[in-house]
DNA sequence: CACATTCTGTCGGGTAACCGACAATTACGC
DNA sequence: GCGTAATTGTCGGTTACCCGACAGAATGTG
């Protein structure tokens, strides 16, 4: 992608996030976004039809990064199913964009991120677990919904609560709980 | 100035400073500068003939900012001669660009900044003191040189020493010494 | 309501940055 | 030494951004 396009988009998205931390989404104007991004107003319209479109792509971009971060690393002999390392990579990415996630998870009137996040995590789990054996007795889709909801809940709590664990800490705790509930195939496979 | 020009120049200058904090000036290449600035290599050449030119303009830009910061503020009834407030503005500006000044004042082989800084301060003092009475017995140019050298020395010490006073603190101390040596016209005028 | 102000979305002309390529020079390792 | 790689400085075609202007919609203030 052209260097200029990337810079403009990054600046515009960052501007929106920083504005959303100050005032509610509906009160934000394209003018403000352009000004904060230090970009001509026309440039905003060149990339996005309106601020709703911008918000959508903003979410999409961050979730894509999140997906990429939990993909098994090539050359490191990582298995195709989730590991504690891949989970840590996700939380590290979340931590890196704290401003974005705290804003969009707490900002009232814009619950768009939470549902997209849950959706994304379900999809990720479903893909990674497709070839694996699970303990019997529970429908696989129910199990996936269970795990995804629990994970999203922990993420939300992590961002909205003043007590701030590090990415390593929270990863360790979440992983322990998932293991404790025998919802990871590790024990069957390793 | 065109928004794009400003952004490019800021990015390039900042890249040079950050590189100078890591390696000596002669080892730095245009490629590295462009890469760090996230700018096409051609853009560097569009603004500067070579890295020496870039370093010069870099120094010039920062000194211009410094000069602007010590100008008497309009509308605040500030006198035309230096005040403690104007000195504080200078140190605040210095503090704001700590990375630049510490790098350029400590980096061996590039004593360009120190001499330009002394020169600039002499000029500033000479201009601001042009209409004022001084205690007799000392040539005015000698006095100016004395004050400027002392000031530059304090600035150098401020940046190169691990003990870090705030801009307010160091301003207070320097002002006290200048007053103590009766080198400020304040007592004669006020 | 009338009025002023701000915001919106779009357009066209101008310009700076991008990118890839090039030959010439310098730096480096065998 | 000699060959390879990196750096330098320049160029031309392409693209994205800037800027000012515009009419229409929305907002808000008397």
From TrEMBL, chains A, B:
Alphabetical list of InterPro entries matching this protein: Homeodomain-like_sf (IPR009057), HTH-type_Tx_Regulator (IPR050624), HTH_TetR (IPR001647), TetR_C_Firmicutes (IPR039532)
MF (Gene Ontology): DNA binding
Pfam families assigned: TetR_C_8, TetR_N
Keywords tagged on the record: DNA-binding
Location of the DNA-binding region in this protein: 29-48
SUPFAM superfamilies: Homeodomain-like
Domain HTH tetR-type positions: 6-66
Domain of life: Bacteria
This protein's name: Transcriptional regulator, TetR family
Organism: Paenibacillus typhae
High-level lineage: Bacteria, Bacillati, Bacillota, Bacilli, Bacillales
